[in-house]
Amino acid sequence: MATRFEVAIPVGTHHDPVAAAEDALDLIDELEAQLTVYRDDSEVSQLNQTAADGFVEVESHLFALLSRCAGWTKETGGAFDIATGALTKAWGFFRREPSVPTQPARNEAMRASGTRHVLLDPARLAVKFRVRGLELNFGAVGKGYALDRAAELLRVKWGVRSALLHAGGSSAFAIGFPPGDTRGWPIDLQHPYEANASLGTLYLRDAGLGTSAATFQFFEYKGQKLGHLLDPRRGWPASGTASTSVIAPTAAEADAMSTAAFVLGASGAESLTRLRPALGAVVLPDESTRLMSLPGRKGEKSESAPRSSPASDVPCSPFDSERGGQSGLLAFNIAPGAFSPTAHVDHSQ
Question: What is the maximum span of the chain, computed from C-alpha positions, in angstroms?
């Protein structure tokens, strides 16, 4: 999954932590082999190649994940959608050779994208695509899902009661809490632009965390910074947000909702946490893109990136330097003491 997975089990909390961690990592390897779209023989790649011809039976856990993703797509109004492989390829992010597609290419990719074209048969655990060219891509949720499955194995098979599972800097799941700190496992939220800076520390306990940011995968186009996180509703890179971090009951849901919050902007993140009380979010708006205009406005080319809702639209007080926090940083539905923002971060970029 193009990242480093880690399993941390505190010394003295389990009789054989190394064996338990290795077992969890072996499971993650198996899930990578199932979900990847970079190998033709993976189950998801095979599904992408054949599901337009008729219903294809899939493994039970994969079907359950597909069903959950379909629900999240509906709940977020399409801001999160795994049926966007055609769009990812049209923009060149699949091979990490990004460029703006032609209008006909983007229209064709939009035609072949969207969970609305994915039919699920619960009785047979089978999947069918209504349009040819549609491809599923679990890049926005796969790491969190793998962490959830690994955490379940640790708890059920090995009896682990305290552990932190981590996938790079974007996904995590906490089992219990570390010895001596009932707040939970401390997770630094990396600043999206400053390599050695942090937005603050979130304390995670029996929950998942997902972070979305276009930190590394982006390119410049007509003075705009276009990242790999696409808005499935428009077929264009999302703008207006620098980073979003979401706490949820599972890491897969946290990944999905952080992606949706990145696309929807701060006001959308606020709405998600109101509709789903189990969610918490930390959002850093991107000041450099707040003035971007909507496509198709008079005197502007349609290639202009859509503008997300500015932070000023959100009924929430940001952390600011006078309160010891990061100016412009917004937090929604975070429990008292669960998040400590940094005293100051320079995000002038």
Answer: 68
The three-class DSSP label of residue 253 is: helix
Strands across the sheet containing 5-8: 5-8, 163-167, 171-175, 207-212, 241-248, 280-285, 330-332
Please check whether residue 109 is in contact with residue 60, taking contact to mean a CB–CB distance below 8 angstroms.
no
| Whole-angstrom distance, CA of residue 244 vs CA of residue 239 | 12
pLDDT at 197 over 50: yes
pTM for the whole structure = 0.86
E strand segments, the chain: 5-8, 56-57, 118-121, 126-129, 163-167, 171-175, 185-190, 198-204, 207-212, 218-221, 224-227, 230-231, 236-237, 241-248, 280-285, 330-332, 339-341
Residue where the block lists tokens 């899902």: 145
Question: What mean pLDDT is predicted for residues 11-27?
Answer: 96
Looking at this protein, which amino acid is placed at residue 261?
Answer: A
Three-state DSSP state, 322: helix
Q: Categorize the per-residue pLDDT at 223 as very low, low, confident or very high, splitting at 50, 70 and 90.
A: low
> Which residues share a beta bridge with 173?
165, 208
By the 8 A CB rule, do 223 and 216 touch? no
What is the 3-state composition of the chain as percent helix, strand, coil, each rounded to the nearest 5? 30, 20, 45
